[in-house]
Amino acid sequence: MQLHLFRHGQTNWNEERRVQGQSESQLTELGIEQAKELNKRIQHLKFDQVYCSSSVRTRQTADHAFADFETQIEFLDSLREIDLGPWEGHLYDDIAVRDPVSFKHFWEQPHLFDVEGAETFYQLQERAVGAVSKMLKQFVSRKVAIVSHGALIKSLLCHFQRRPMSELWAPPTMHNCAHSIIELNADGSGHIIQYADQASPEEQ
Q1: SS3 for 43-92, per residue?
Q2: Distance separating alpha carbons of residues 3 and 68, to the nearest angstrom
Q3: Is 0.85 topped by the overall pTM?
Q4: What is the pLDDT, as a whole number, of residue 141?
Q5: How much is the pLDDT for 180?
Q6: For residue 7, how many C-alpha atoms fall within 13 Å in the half-sphere facing its CB?
Q7: Domains of the chain (ranges plus CATH)?
């Protein structure tokens, strides 16, 4: 299965540097333009199925990016962003002052991130890999798209690159509407052929 991963377009909370997690935010005008531009970039790709996080920002992105997709898009809670519980809705700058240790863990030592009421990155990764495993059983040798979120996509790429969680945020940056591609085998193994619109190191 060839799995294409797309991050949502820019949101109002991205712009404000506000913690989103599983809370709802909306695409900005720029975010809508990014999704429309993504639609142009993927016109040559013919997907057998499109899955989308059930969050508003990913639904809005899919509406524009997959406006021409003829089959019904399937919305899944399992593709939602990491649940950040008590952090959600707060500015990152305020979190950095209020909880500097956890803030440092989140961005610099993700393997240590553990906030009461929030998911860990390990739990996020387990959820993401589980969702993809179900898709693989149904769409072996097919082309599948997922519209999701930065941390969730990073956790999948980290898994298939067999990198430790401590390297979750390693470059390249998962920019808005970034497009990554994973080639998956029937046994669940896989390799990355495109990472955030860049060829993988093996392909360069």
Answers
A1: CCCCCCEEEEECCHHHHHHHHHHCCCCCCCCEEEHHHCCCCCHHHCCCEH
A2: 19
A3: yes
A4: 76
A5: 97
A6: 26
A7: 2-199 (3.40.50.1240)
